[in-house]
Specification:
The complex is a heterodimer. Chain A is an alpha/beta fold. Chain A has a domain of 302 residues: Amidase signature (AS) enzymes. Chain A is 37% helix and 13% strand. Chain A contains 15 helices and eleven strands. In chain A, the strands form two sheets. In chain A, strands 4-6-5-10-11-9-7-8 form an eight-stranded mixed beta sheet. A three-stranded mixed beta sheet of chain A has the order 1-3-2, sandwiched between helices. In chain A, strand 10 and strand 11 form a beta hairpin. The longest helix of chain A has 21 residues. By secondary structure, chain B is of the alpha+beta class. Chain B has three domains: 284 residues, no CATH class; 114 residues, no CATH class; 59 residues, Arc Repressor Mutant, subunit A (Orthogonal Bundle), CATH 1.10.10. Helix content of chain B is 39%, strand content 21%. Chain B is built from 15 helices and 16 strands. In chain B, the strands form four sheets. In chain B, strands 2-6-7-10-1-11-12-13-14 form a nine-stranded mixed beta sheet. The model of chain B has no long low-confidence stretch (mean pLDDT 92). The chains are: A alpha/beta, B alpha+beta.
């Protein structure tokens, strides 16, 4: 059977109709991982035994008429940033190579409660810092469309695994584009909801005011199904929002006629690769034919989002990563001479170059004498960027543009040039700074590589956002494309 | 020799808040548990864990703000104070810097009969660190995180105290106040109330402040006084010898009665404070503050004024009674039993206080309950016993011999009020002390005391003193 070519929604129906079982699906996807992950390197940890046991439990529930709902028994994988009880949780770092979490993240609990079957933990940039999945302690992840190319980052393992159909869906996290950019590079659908919509409890922090969990899947419909189960207020996360979750799945049928899509002029300026621009333009035309109005909008401060981000995010990270000190868990250097030696060598050995670079930047930005000039100023500009978006949303229902300025680049191509690497997220970062929900959906290809369209919604506008993606996917086939080697 | 100098002292007091659980986690803060049994994943700072504010602390901090007549900020912000230490699991302490919950308060102290207003700059919420236990195992330091995350209120005074005595008076007043309003148990041995003192000296008339030294973690009133006095002398001696005070942190060594340098300013950390992105700014409104105000107990100064006004007590008596809320409550319970307030005050401040002091007990641990003391006072009032005999009765009650009536009964302390019996006794004493009678009659009135003593001796103190005085006077004047 070719179960891996099916969507999560189709697999759910197949189980419900008795055409297959969770056990069969789980075995099928385990076989997919075993056959293909050697070349792609998307998994850090495989939990196949636990997955098979969970699948059997799901089948037993269904047989007893006690199914937990549409996700019960469906296989998936978690980005290795979510703490999973009794399972190694590395965050892509040597620092946590020996860390077995004694507790589950809220997202992990919620998907478990929905009955989903977790096949393992996916590879990622170290502490989610990277745009190419090349900073992982566990090696580069390859792009399933061309294994000489990067899958994007930081959720590269999650994106590549879904792109190659090793699993039908995965979780991810997005601090500056870490779901949307790899979704674009791997030709799949990815959503980062509004900041505060999904609990951050148990999700290892990079930049607390920006981090948000989300989903990779092959369709907007699947993303809606899974995001629905992940969302909601959590009293263990003070920044999660106490507000009911919209019905994301049944909201997927609304016509887009009369809706207005805003195109930020700054997203179509110099620096955008022509193939990307052509694919995005074509997608916009498709939206016009679906009845939407299109309007150019101005986000005057968006050009500052990369520098602002590279003050705010490293500043928060520099404090968030202080807990990795070799005292209580994780890597500890051998035979420390004294306390200072313990700290210095533990952190020098445990963290990779990119993580160290960002800790240094953040420490600098918060230092006495620089704090006002960097951190405070960045926070002020962050507010302006957010206000620009809110003003634009007075006139438009959605904002659209390219997810990335270019096509997936080659492995090793940008690793020596951090600034060029940081510019990969030029279109996605502003959305995190404003706390808005954003998506990437596949809308074209060039040289055999996928191209993504970014859609941005209003705060808590996930239903409208997912519906816009779904409507596009009803009339196009880009989301159905599977890399030749993985069909 | 130090008369050309004046001292400037500011105190930072850490009061541990009386909550059930920690500032940002559900772990218990009960004292004395086995190491690391009160530390959950949040306290251990496991990856992915997040803080959630214990809302009770807002109530407690607001109480202090009201009691200090301070500004209570409706928006306060928690910040991260970054530094590495093994008993600080997150690598930062969550504290308040720019926007503390309480600012601009005041406290009135009384030293040598003079009242002084001391400004309270601010009081902010922060979490305590864990404990490092050096030498826990061969060559190792153990870490106990039970205390990590315990809620503290750091109460910072203006540099307006000018002697160790004022500093102690301020600390004692605050110590009493936090217990009054039920926000801190005040247990100094367990570290629930501890003090850092900033001390500097300057020559009289000099405007700008001298360089200060901070003496850390002093945990008794006595040590605060000694440490400050030592530090004042050290600084003056240093300057007079041509040296300079350096800004530094010092530690008080009680065994040697000296302060020693811990670290100088050059070694001080840059804490890189910034608002904690895991916590929202805490916002409270007038309704919240008014609800807390409505729940406030009577404050010591108001209580003192009431004791003076309603009960006719002296300032000193009222001050002593209201120093601690349990003592004030005890006193009021005695009065509520129908005892004359002045008599009640005399016994509370006198015999009761003396016994408590002698046996280092708190009034809440007194073996003589308010009800028992009231029972005894009734026997004084109805002339069953004299004031003097009552002390013996009190001692009996203290030693567990039962209530006043039982002690009087068993010990046979009932007062002799039979005028005939007293007269007979006095006649006998006058007859056998003719010499003294003569002296008295010759104008040496002091001898009167001798006769009273003789009567009391003969009756084992049980004769009614008023009657004795009256009859003696009558017979001696003859």
């Amino acid at each position: 059977m070719t179960w891996h070519t099916k969507t999560l929604t189709e697999l759910s129906s197949a189980i419900a109709a008795g055409e297959t079982t969770s056990r069969e699906l789980t075995e099928h996807f385990i076989a997919r991982v075993e056959a293909h992950d050697g070349e792609l390197n998307t998994f850090v940890t495989r939990t196949f035994d636990a997955a098979l046991a969970a699948a059997e439990a799901a089948d037993a529930r269904r047989a007893a008429g006690e199914s937990l709902g549409p996700l019960d028994g469906l296989p998936f994988a978690h980005k290795d940033i979510f703490c999973t009880k009794g399972v190694k949780t590395t965050c892509g770092s040597k620092m946590l190579d020996n860390f077995i979490s004694p507790y589950d993240a809220t997202v992990v609990e919620k998907l478990q409660a929905a009955g989903m079957v977790c096949l393992g933990k996916t590879n990622m940039d170290e502490f989610a810092m990277g745009s190419s999945n090349e900073t992982s302690y566990y090696g580069d992840v390859k792009n399933p469309w061309d294994t000489s190319k990067v899958p994007g980052g930081s959720s590269g393992g999650s994106a590549s695994a879904v792109g190659a159909r090793l699993v039908p869906a995965t979780t991810g996290t997005d601090t500056g584009g870490s779901i949307r950019q790899p979704a674009a590079f791997c030709g799949i659908t990815g959503i980062k909801p509004t900041y505060g919509r999904v609990s951050r409890y148990g999700m290892i922090a990079f930049a607390s005011s920006l981090d948000q969990a989300g989903v990779f899947a092959t369709t907007a419909e699947d993303a809606a199904l899974m995001l629905q189960a992940m969302s909601g207020f959590d009293e263990r996360d003070s920044t999660s929002i106490e507000r009911p979750v919209d019905d994301l799945v049944t909201g997927l049928g609304e016509s887009l006629a009369g809706k207005t899509i805003g195109l930020p002029k700054q997203f179509f300026a110099d620096g955008l690769e022509p193939e990307v621009k052509a694919a995005v333009d074509a997608a916009i035309n498709e939206y016009k034919s679906l009845g939407t109005e299109v309007k150019e909008i101005d986000l005057p401060n968006i050009g500052l989002s990369v520098p602002v981000y590279y003050v705010v995010a490293p500043a928060e990270a520099s404090a968030n990563l202080s807990r990795f000190d070799g005292v209580r868990y994780g890597h500890r250097c051998d035979n420390p001479e004294d306390l200072t030696d313990l700290y210095k060598r533990t952190r020098a050995e445990g963290f990779g170059d990119e993580v160290k670079r960002r800790i240094m930047m953040g420490t600098y930005a918060l230092s006495s004498g620089y704090y006002d000039a960097y951190y405070i100023k960045a926070q002020k500009i962050r507010r302006l960027i957010r206000d620009d978006f809110l003003k634009a949303f007075e006139e438009v229902d959605l904002i659209a543009g390219p997810t990335t300025p270019g096509l997936p680049f080659g492995l090793g191509e940008q690793t020596d040039d951090p600034v060029t690497m940081y510019l990969n997220d030029i279109f996605t970062i502003g959305v995190n700074l404003a706390g808005l929900p954003g998506m990437s959906i596949p809308v074209g290809e060039a040289s055999g590589l996928p191209i993504g369209l970014q859609l941005v919604g209003k705060h808590f506008g996930e239903a409208e956002l997912l519906n816009a993606a779904h409507q596009y996917q009803q009339v196009t086939d880009w989301h159905k494309a599977i890399p030749a080697a993985y069909q | 020799m130090y008369s050309n100098w004046e001292t400037v002292i500011g105190l930072e007091i850490h009061a541990q808040l009386s909550t059930n659980s920690k500032l940002f986690s559900g772990s218990s803060i009960a004292y004395g548990a086995e190491p690391n049994t009160q530390a959950n994943e949040v306290d251990l700072a496991l990856p992915g864990t997040l803080p959630v504010l214990n809302k009770e602390v807002m109530n407690l901090a607001t109480r202090l703000g009201i009691a200090l007549n301070a500004t209570i900020n409706k928006r306060s912000v928690f910040e991260r104070k970054n530094y590495f230490y093994p008993d600080l699991p997150k690598g930062y302490q969550t504290s308040q810097l720019e926007l503390p919950i309480v600012e601009h308060g005041e406290l009135f102290i009384n030293v040598n009969g003079e009242e002084k207003r001391v400004g309270v700059t601010r009081a902010h919420l922060e979490e305590d660190a864990g404990k490092s236990i050096h030498g826990a195992a061969e060559g190792c330091t153990g870490i106990d995180l039970n205390r990590a995350g315990t809620p503290l209120l750091e109460i910072v005074s203006e540099p307006e105290l000018s002697s160790a005595a004022e500093a102690v008076a301020y600390m004692k007043k605050l110590h009493s106040l936090v217990q009054y309003i039920g926000i801190c148990d005040g247990n100094m041995q367990e570290g629930s109330f501890r003090c850092d003192a900033n001390v500097s000296v300057r020559s009289k008339g000099q405007e700008e402040l001298g360089t200060r030294a901070e003496i850390k973690n002093i945990n008794s009133f006595r040590f605060v006084e000694k440490a400050i006095n030592f530090e004042i002398e050290r600084q003056i001696d240093l300057i007079e010898d041509g040296g300079e005070v350096v800004q530094e942190t010092r530690l008080y060594d009680a065994d040697k009665n000296e302060t020693r340098s811990m670290r100088s300013k050059e070694e001080a950390n840059d804490y890189r404070y910034f608002p904690c992105p895991d916590l929202l700014p805490v916002v409270i409104d007038d309704a919240f503050i008014e609800a807390v105000r409505g729940d406030m107990p009577e404050l010591p100064d108001a209580k003192k004024a009431r004791f003076v006004g309603d009960f006719g007590l002296s300032d000193e008596d009222a001050a002593q009674l209201t120093n601690s809320r349990p003592m004030a409550d005890y006193f009021e319970a005695v009065v509520a039993d129908g005892i004359d307030p002045k008599m009640a005050a005399n016994w509370c401040n006198g015999e009761l206080a003396a016994w408590l002091n002698k046996e280092e007990k708190d009034v809440t641990e007194s073996p003589v309950s308010a009800e028992m003391l009231a029972g005894m006072c009734k026997r004084i009032a109805d002339n069953t016993i004299s004031n003097k005999i009552a002390k013996e009765v009190f001692e009996g009650m203290w030693n567990g011999e039962g209530d006043a009536d039982a002690v009087i009964e068993v010990k046979g302390l009932k007062q002799i009020t039979d005028t005939g019996a007293i007269e007979a006794m006095i006649d006998e004493i006058i007859a056998s002390n003719a010499g003294q009678v003569e002296q008295y009659r010759a104008g040496k009135e002091k001898v009167f005391g001798f006769f009273v003593g003789q009567v009391m001796k003969a009756t084992q103190g049980k004769a009614n003193p008023a009657q004795v005085n009256q009859i003696l006077k009558q017979k001696l004047t003859g």
